Give the backbone structure.
Amino acid sequence: MKKYFLLFFTLIFFTNSYSQIYNFRYPDPGNGSLRGGMGLQWIDGELNYTFHFTPEFAFDKFGIGLDLQLNFNRQGKLRTKDFNEFSDYLRVIRYLRYGEKGDPAYIKLGALNYYTLGHGSIMYNYFNSPTYYARRAGLIVDIDFGKFGIESIYSNFGERGIIGARGYLRPFQFTPQESIPIIGGLQIGASYVVDMNKRAGFVSGYFSAGNNFIPTVNEGSIKIIGLDIGLPLLSSNYFDLTLYADYAKIINFGNGISTGFLFRLKNLGLFKINGKIERRFNGDHYIPSYFNSLYEIERFSSNPSNNTFTSKASLLMARNASDNGIFGELGINVAGLFYIRGSYQRLDKTPASGILHLGTEINPQGSSFII
């Protein structure tokens, strides 16, 4: 039995080694997907082989995402304690959705991943459930009525978390000039996002005798307001190009401006390319894209054993000088088989501040799995 279990373990490793840390792509409409990962972990003092599957089943515009984690001991026996209660089976349902980001209607309930508000200056690729054991149920509602629309997110029904919304309108769609190229598609938006979590504003503090963290400086809820404008310079069968500019203000802290281009190349035979390039003007006490993919981890974490902690608010407070920078992202789809995305950001005044991130997927078109 152990021999067959190890063989299965090895096959999973080579056929599905890509984890869902950088899932930058939605399944094609009507198609499902299977993602997963594997590893080792100690549970109740016993070493376990862990297999993590996150498939999605799609039916036209509807989709259901599952999240199944199976733990096996060294003898290959399934840890049945993980499925003793009805709630354990409910946890398998990761999310329900209708539509996709960019559709006239997009609604998602449950685990939220890679959500961007507007052009991303306030919220970019946000996750509400960064790990299997930190699962949260939230809600996304995006509606585009043509002349105006709204994007909104509620991160966590279980406790206080992030609430955000962006309203936007296309002003020339209300006038006789609605059909004029470029100008007719002008979009103006306003955003408000607040994190009401009790740890959102922790800046400094100490650990009590009972290893509880006692904040000495607490800024309370983190609130960010923003204004943006987007102008579609070109929209054709082969190339889309949008110019945008954003302003964001973190209440009681600093502010910043970002401007750049969003572009997409399509109908190029084997290739589809999309991306953005952005110039950032960062004031002091300001972090662009504050609510990012790692925010739920970065918000606050502590280690009482060595009396240390980190928090996003403390990083915000520590940025006491303006430092402009650049950000770029590029995604390439090769024949529906390979998906490659990379991003790079750098600050002008900070030496060795460049950060490069690369991610890739292998997904044969029409198959049921992603590597």
